[in-house]
Specification:
Layout (H helix, E strand, L loop, with lengths): L7 E7 L4 E7 L5 H10 L3 E2 L6 E5 L9 H10 L7 E11 L22 E7 L8 E6 L12 H15 L14 E7 L5 E6 L4 E3 L16 E9 L1
Antiparallel strand pairs: 1-2, 2-9, 3-4, 4-5, 5-11, 6-9, 6-11, 7-8, 7-10
């Protein structure tokens, strides 16, 4: 196992609502081992929402940064009682733009509850694309909370009626529906944390090179942490 490097940590607030975005560089010190595990994994279709395939990712390597992770969860996200892991997967975006479902063509949120924190661990460089964060223009929402879900869904229907279906492409930047408010670039061994209620979308610089071969594709580790 590679030695644990000194982490580089930044925390910033996004947009008007000020939700935190945490970026930790040099997180694990074991990117090569994680890549090899991802290459050897067995993948399955991830379901209707994710445009690709996924496989279980053993999360034990987080223990190398247990103290740092707990500090972030407590001081940044306010979880002082405890944290549990809800999901941990190797993920590969594989769906061609022409095959994207309508909801895969716009930014999304993972969970409306404020207790869910999404974790994106990039294993590859900026050529594979990072993550972008958005404000919905019609509502002004940057996050979708339980009390906003009905209004947000109704507004999406209005957007479709006014502007038509979103184009068959991966969303990036400003559109009739959404405004870009922040973006983080992929870097090897960069780990990013943000609340699951934040509107966001993966950045896909070149859809033509997407692959279901983990040695060639956009391989990341995605996790969800639930705090209390």
């Amino acid at each position: 196992m590679q030695p644990l490097p000194e982490p580089k940590i930044s925390v910033r607030q996004m947009g008007r609502e000020g939700e935190p975005l945490v970026v930790i560089d040099q997180f694990s010190g074991m990117v090569d081992e994680l890549l090899e595990a991802g290459y050897a994994a067995e993948y399955q279709h991830a379901g209707a929402s994710y445009p690709g395939i996924r496989s279980w990712a053993e999360p034990n390597y987080l223990d190398r940064r247990r103290d740092l992770m707990m500090q972030v969860m407590q001081r940044v996200f306010g979880f002082t009682k405890g944290v549990r892991l809800d999901a941990s997967t190797f993920s590969l975006v594989t769906v061609a733009e022409t095959d994207l479902a309508p909801l895969q063509r716009i930014p999304h949120y993972d969970h409306s509850g404020g207790e869910v924190v999404a974790v994106m661990h990039y294993l590859l460089g900026p050529e594979t694309g990072g993550t972008a964060f958005y404000r919905h223009k019609r509502t002004g929402f940057e996050t979708v909370t339980p009390d906003r879900e009905a209004a947000y869904n109704a507004a999406l229907a209005q957007d479709e009626q006014e502007h038509g279906m979103p184009p068959a492409s991966f969303h990036h930047g400003d559109s009739d529906w959404f405004e870009l408010i922040d973006e983080v670039e992929a870097q090897p061994d960069r780990l990013v944390l943000y609340r699951g209620r934040q509107l966001h979308s993966g950045v896909i610089p070149d859809p033509a090179v997407l692959s279901d071969n983990p040695r060639k594709g956009r391989l990341t580790i995605n996790m969800f942490l639930v705090g209390s």
